Amino acid sequence: MIRENVKLTDAQPGDICCGFELEKKQYVASKAATLYTMRHKKCGAELLYFDRDDENKTFCIGFKTLPEDDTGVFHILEHSVLNGSKRFPVKEPFVSLLQGSMQTFLNAMTYSDKTIFPVSSRSEQDLFNLMRVYLDGVFCPNIYEKPEIFMQEGWHYEFDGEQAQPYYNGVVFSEMKGAYADVERVIGEGTDRLLYPDTCYGFSSGGKPEHIPELSYAQFIAAHKRFYHPSNARIFLDGHMDVERVLAYIDAEYLSQYAYRAPDFDFTVQQPRTGEATVYYEAMPGEETLCHMSLSRLLCRYDDVETVYAAKILSDYLTGSNEAPLKRAFLERGLAQDVTLEISDGIYQPSAALIVRNTTRDAFDKVKTLAAEVARNMLAAGLDREALSASLERFAFTNREITEPYGVELACRAFDSWLYGGDPLAYIDNAAVFDTLREKIHAGYFERLLSDLLGSSGDLCTLYVLPSLTKGEDDARRESERLAAATAAWDADQRSEAYAAFRRMQQWQQSEDSAQALMSLPHLRLEDVPQTVAPVQTQPGEVSGVRTLHVSGDTNGIVYLNLYFDVSDLTDEELCMLNVLSTCFGELRTETCPADVLQNRVKALLGSLFLRVDCLQKQGDTEHVHPYLLVSASMLEENAAEAVQLLRELLTQGRYDETDRIGETVMQNDYFMRQSLISNGHTFAVTKSLSAFSAGAALRETLEGETFVRWFAALAAGFAQNGAQVSAALAALTEKVFVTSRLFAGYSGALDAGVLARLIAALRVLALLTLLFALAFWAGSHVAWLLAIIIGFNLFFSPLVPLTDALANTWQKQITMDYGRVRLWGSIAFVIGSALTGKLVSLFDYRAILLMLSLGVASMLLGMLLKPSVMPQGESRQQQGAGMAAWLTLVRQSWRFLACVCLLQGAHAAYYGFSAIYWQQAGYSASAVGYLWSLGVVAEVVIFALSKKVFRRFSARDLLLLSAACGLIRWGLMGWTTALPGLILAQILHCGTFTVCHLAAMRYIAARQGSEVIRLQAVYSAVAMGGSIAIMTVFAGFLYQHLHQGVFWVMALLTLPAMAIRPKAVAA
After folding, report:
1. Which of 53, 411, 383, 479 is nearest to 235 (CA)?
2. DSSP per-residue letters across 732-761
3. Residue (of 362, 393, 379, 396) closest to 325 by Cα position
4. Is residue 1049 a contact partner of residue 971, using CB atoms and an 8 Å limit?
5. Which SS3 state, helix, strand or coil, does residue 539 take?
6. Beta pairing class for 275-282 and 291-298
7. Three-state DSSP class for residue 286
8. Contact, 860 vs 1023, CB < 8 A?
9. Which of 32, 390, 566, 705 qualifies as a cystine partner to 687, CB 3.0-4.6 A?
């Protein structure tokens, strides 16, 4: 039964609340929100309400606006509806409202297929006021009574005098002339026209300057009536609020006054096509030979979220930095200055375009060939899974991060699917997509996507973008010709009317809003403003002599870290050079890590990283400014320890001697700065103007304004000759600036670097106690004494193995350390120690064993007393639970891994316990058996030494499969034959059954976070390396007694279930 006038929180699907029918109600755990999906019963307007705890509350209304020409009508409408309305007849209502508003976001945006009007405020009443003005603006704008609004915002004939020749002018007209001076706009639009000739995306929603004057006032009004009807509206609400009040107002004042009208427009499916086109951009002197190129194709539909994110991840992997493989291939061959694979999403049919910047005309064919060739080579060699994982984690971080105001971001994400009839949560509640893609990294999915995108250049759309030094003049000439043709058809009356219309617009612009009109605007009352404001909780502190400030707040599990280095003693030239440093910070190698590996670590551990010079001034002081170099980074709390260590490495171990690499970033940034100067000239003009009024503004002009752009251009122009000096200057600056005496650190989120750092102290204590019990062996030989000593020795020695492996795993994440090459020294020590102890026992007596044990443990203790050059960093406080629940959760998450390694390591039980006896019974001498065992350890050493190189592209899952296959062969051989060639092969395979399995385990464990590394390492050592072998040894004894060599066949069978239960997705 349908219920009407139901409170929304009590409503069920089908119930009516304030004129809206509830279609769906669902809890979104990832956002801690209840989502209500509704549709207005009478007019059909759609509404989403995110009932979510957020101080910022958001309202947004949007419309599907599909361009059918290049006149920019929807761009002009977006401007125009905010110029007064029926209830609020003020020329610029939002300018007046802002004077007394608590808004945190207020804007309007025209996209290629939609127009949205979002606003946020921390005051519910303020949001309600702004919503009222927005609603009246979009549904009842003054454009019907005031054509002057269209003339002002769109285009009009402008006269400098009654007898003067007219010319075109208008806000959108002028804005788009500036926009099309930017070559990036030319590339983007040219690409879209090739890809989408049959859809709205083939037109310019912003408007092309040559076509904007083709739009008449009547067409403008008709577009509003057709597209701004409530039946085409989508309304978004976010945050706790009196939602019934909001819904009732929307219903009563607007929606209930309209009947449903089926739209006569919708999205058209573009069929894939190929083709070529050539366009020109306005080049500046010196750019006569600089060409650009775009290779593009359709990607998928809007609802294929997995493909969209996968393409973005692949784009970052291929071209996300100068070390990315596809970009590096172009840079090394000198075919382009920059290359990016750009994914256009948030539209009905997303697309991918490889943009090649600053190439030459004669290189076009080579560009097309190279893109496909590099793709094929990568497919043949296999993609770097570690690098892919790093790119994936960067996007997963972005998906998790909360920006302010978050409601506006949620609205934009909802429209990315909702507008097309899809699930509004598709791009909001999508953590599962990243989980799926993590698995598919190891399943060839990204290789297939790469093949589809770039495997062949024959099925791509190709855009050639050529320079023209005369384009500006040519465009102006053609505009004059169009204007002359239009005005030539005027008679005297028409000219007089055009001038009169212009004068009416001027008079309207110069008129003042009446007091009555201004009074119509809603205003906040004092009682609407919260009387108390929750204070920002801060905690000053000090770490190693550095002042710190912790800012409390909900960061959704993210740490934000700002490092401020006082650079007030630097010259302007040095400050400008710091800006150069910002362009390559994090892009170059460090003393211990090559650039490509470093990029993977940066992407995997840091959600964001940037460096800039901040100019701080005390309020009211215009004469003084204090510059700081800000190094800002964000990271997941569970990765904070490793991320901070990485940041320390970037700051203190960065190498700036790679002049060629620095030159690449300088040239790329010079290009983008010059383009920014063209497209954002008004911003640079304001910065220049303000520079005369304060020391801070003057320094900002020096470091960010037109002055800096020209300084940087000169640096780039002379880099070929002066690159070595620039590199030396950057290196000198880092040594001068990145010192603790200059540093102040601020952070939010949980950051604790102490837990694993205390692991070294624990290891030292355990080693000391182990040594004391080893020495106690010398004190007596009574059975009770020896039993007590053995128990004590094992109590303190046993934890050393998993804890030292855990420490190694932690260091693996912080520094470039090859675990295999470190671990091989343990195997070498085993061989040497065993041989030396055996020799000493044969020469002396059993006390040689005690001597070697005492010396070995003492040496271990001395080694642990050495101070590491890099201290291990701990996990965040969020990972503090180490009780039984945490252990059980870890075991449940890792049961496949533990079961698999238990089977593979447990299969060694028969080998460890009975192989020597079996071989001696087969006629081999004790020394021959010893040599066979040594052969296994030698093979182990070789694989440990080569593991990083050999298994670089193997995931832990792959390594476990390899180990199981080696086990099947090895134990089968030992059960089948005792011939020496077979035994030699079986012992060589020890490197597969033990070493590869152990490497897989270390790789799997290293992928865990924080204290989970220690816990899982302990479980692995106790269960797989200890418990499973102990239990299997008991069974092996029984089986050897009854089956003799058949016990090895049983061990071989254990590898089969191990293959089946390998963990499905583990870190590479």
Report:
1. 411
2. HHHHHHSSGGGEEEEEES-----TTHHHHH
3. 379
4. yes
5. strand
6. unpaired
7. coil
8. no
9. 705
Rounded to an integer, the average pLDDT of 466-487 is 94
Q: If you count DSSP H runs as helices and E runs as strands, how many of each does the chain have, helices first?
A: 42, 22
How many alpha carbons fall within 13 Å on the CB side of residue 590?
23
Distance CA 264, CA 302 (A): 21
The DSSP string of 853-882 is HHHHHHHHHHHHHSPPSS------GGG---
User: 979: Cβ–Cβ under 8 A, 6 or more apart, which residues?
Assistant: none
pTM: 0.73
Q: Which two tokens stand for residue 916?
A: 């020597």
Residue 888 to residues 142, 189, 597, 1062, Cα–Cα distance (Å): 66, 56, 35, 19
Burial of 682 (0-12, 13-18, 19+ CB in 10 A): exposed
What are 521's two structure tokens?
């605007």
Distance CA 664, CA 973 (A): 57
Q: Compute CA 697 distance to the chain's CA centroid, rounded to the nearest angstrom.
A: 33
- DSSP state letter for 298: E
DSSP 537: P
The phi, psi pair for 237, rounded to 5°, reads -125, 145
Question: What are the residue ranges of helices labelled H in 747-799?
Answer: 757-776, 783-797
Q: Percent of the chain scored above 70 by pLDDT?
A: 88
Q: Report helix, strand or coil for 633.
A: strand
| Most confidently predicted of 352-366, 767-781, 818-832 | 352-366
**802 — pLDDT class (breaks 50, 70, 90):** low
Tell me the C-alpha distance between 530 and 743, whole Å: 37
Cα separation, 835 vs 722, in Å, equals: 61
Burial group, residue 768, by CB count within 10 angstroms (0-12, 13-18, 19+): middle
Cα–Cα dist 680/669, whole Å: 16
Q: How far is CA 471 from CA 294, 680, 921, in A?
A: 20, 19, 93
Phi, psi (deg, nearest 5) at residue 608: -150, 155
CA distance 894 to 444: 24
- Is 134 in contact with 59 (CB distance < 8 Å)? yes
Alpha helices in 82-180 (DSSP H): 93-98, 124-139, 147-153, 171-179
Structure tokens at 937: 């350890």
Dist. CA 934–CA 940, nearest whole Å: 10
In angstroms, the first-to-last Cα distance of the chain is: 55
Vertex 855 angle, CA 854 and 859, to 5°: 120
Residues composing the chain? 1068
Cα 277 to Cα 202: distance, rounded to the nearest angstrom: 14
CA angle 373, 376, 379 (to 5 degrees): 150
Distant-in-sequence, close-in-space partners of 296: CB < 8 Å, separation ≥ 6 = 191, 194, 195, 351, 352, 353, 354, 460, 461, 463
Q: Does the N-terminal peptide bond of residue 405 adopt cis geometry, omega within 30 degrees of 0?
A: yes
Q: Which two tokens stand for residue 546?
A: 């550095």
Phi and psi at residue 438, to the nearest 5°: -60, -40
pLDDT digits (tens, 9 = 90+) for 756-799: 445 456 656 766 777 777 777 777 777 777 777 777 666 556 55
Beta-strand (E) ranges in 137-282? 156-158, 167-169, 233-238, 275-282
- Per-residue confidence (pLDDT) for residue 399, from 0 to 100: 82
Q: What is the rounded CA–CA span in Å between residue 553 and residue 550?
A: 10
Q: Assess contact for 787 and 678: CB atoms under 8 A.
A: no
On the question of pLDDT at 831 being above 80, the answer is: no
Q: What is the rounded CA–CA span in Å between residue 651 and residue 588?
A: 12
In 3-state terms, what secondary structure has residue 982? Answer: helix
Backbone angles phi, psi at 537, to 5 degrees: -80, 120
- Tens of pLDDT, residues 94-111: 888 777 788 899 999 999
Give residues with Cβ within 8 angstroms of 561, minimum separation 6: 632, 633, 634, 635, 644, 647, 745, 746, 747, 751
